[in-house]
């Protein structure tokens, strides 16, 4: 009972801190206009002069550039042999389906939400925030989007029922571009912050949203890649101060690979934390982060049964036929007692009715 009480107490504390963080961009924008006597000197509709040159690049990256970048980086990873011949069978199918399906489904869902739902939910508010300066909109969206995703991600690890909607992402026994989009479709469709960002765009913060999306996507790509771009920062002492700040601010390969480790018993893997997507600072603030500057020896889920691609992508509509699978018919997702020495993830994987 004491453990449950402490857990609830920590959750209440973290949520309270989150509400305060959500207000910071709003307070900053308010103070900006208060100190400038309420004058609107710039708007996100007109980018700051020093960013105008980057607008075409960001627009192209948003439409097709990121997809091309992912494919090229994936080819480099395969050529370098970084997948150790593990991209076979069901792994290949689920990765390809998870990569293609959102690109066909999500644009339609977001368009419907933006064009049909929002005008009904918040009528007459379109472009009502267009007066907000670019930096304010960027700060507002970056915090609102990524902190919301931190909680969405964290709760899918801490609530047993939700875990099976996120389990697909952690089932891959490798890291890299191939598994980046690997998610159950329900986890993707209800990805809460995409609707938050769509709402802020509807309210008039389209350009800041574009810049946040591209920067966040590049950081996420880098964190999932099997190319450990952060290793030179650990190797050369002159770069250590930069890395100290960097690894606490954003997700890096070392911190995010640790989140995908198949065990937390080696002091490197940290399945129960490192939830940050773009910003790692959320994990620092809420005490869920672990920084070791080391990489796990293996990834995935130890009880993984290589379930059928349709079960991983479409559970609970389709169930797995693999015996002992957490996605099989009749399996309950309830917490099991943790092993105090070696905590194989996840602890609620194998309970059955």
Automatic annotation (TrEMBL):
Where in the cell? Endomembrane system
Looking at the keywords, is Transcription regulation present? no
Question: What keywords sit in the KW lines?
Answer: Lipid metabolism, Membrane, Oxidoreductase, Transmembrane, Transmembrane helix
Q: Which residues cross the membrane?
A: 15-33, 61-83, 104-122, 134-152, 185-203
Domain Fatty acid hydroxylase, chain residue ranges per copy: 139-288
State the membrane topology.
Multi-pass membrane protein
Pfam families from the entry?
A: FA_hydroxylase (PF04116)
Q: What is the protein's major site of localization?
A: membrane
Q: Give the InterPro entries listed for this entry.
A: Fatty_acid_hydroxylase, Sterol_desaturase/TMEM195
Designated name of the protein: Fatty acid hydroxylase domain-containing protein
Identify the species of origin.
Flavobacterium limi
């Amino acid at each position: 009972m004491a453990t449950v009480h402490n857990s609830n107490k920590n959750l209440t504390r973290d949520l309270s801190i989150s509400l305060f963080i959500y207000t910071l961009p709003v307070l900053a924008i308010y103070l900006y206009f208060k100190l400038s006597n309420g004058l609107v000197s710039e708007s996100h509709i007109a980018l700051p002069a020093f960013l105008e040159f980057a607008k075409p690049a960001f627009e192209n990256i948003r439409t097709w550039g990121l997809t091309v970048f992912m494919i090229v980086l994936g080819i480099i990873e395969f050529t370098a042999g970084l997948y150790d011949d593990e991209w076979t069978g069901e792994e290949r199918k689920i990765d390809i389906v998870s990569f293609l399906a959102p690109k066909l489904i999500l644009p339609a869902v977001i368009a419907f939400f933006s064009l049909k739902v929002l005008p009904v939910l918040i009528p007459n508010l379109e472009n009502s925030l267009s007066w907000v300066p670019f930096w304010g909109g960027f700060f507002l969206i970056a915090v609102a989007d990524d902190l919301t995703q931190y909680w969405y991600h964290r709760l899918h690890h801490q609530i047993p029922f939700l875990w099976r909607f996120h389990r697909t992402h952690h089932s891959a026994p490798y890291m890299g571009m191939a598994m980046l989009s690997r998610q159950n479709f329900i986890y993707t469709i209800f990805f809460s912050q995409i609707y938050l960002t769509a709402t802020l765009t509807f309210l008039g913060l389209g350009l800041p949203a574009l810049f946040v999306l591209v920067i966040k996507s590049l950081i996420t790509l880098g964190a999932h890649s099997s190319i450990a771009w952060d290793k030179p920062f650990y190797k050369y002492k002159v770069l250590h101060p930069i890395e100290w700040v960097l690894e606490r601010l954003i997700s890096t390969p070392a911190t995010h690979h640790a989140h995908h480790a198949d065990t937390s018993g080696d002091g490197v893997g940290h399945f129960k934390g490192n939830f940050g997507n773009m910003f790692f600072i959320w994990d620092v603030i809420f005490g869920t982060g672990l920084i070791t500057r080391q990489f796990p020896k293996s990834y995935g889920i130890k009880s993984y049964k290589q379930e059928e691609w349709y079960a991983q992508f479409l559970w609970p509509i389709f169930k797995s036929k693999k015996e002992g699978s957490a996605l099989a018919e009749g399996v309950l997702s309830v917490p099991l007692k943790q092993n105090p020495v070696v905590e194989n993830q996840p602890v609620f994987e194998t309970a059955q009715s």
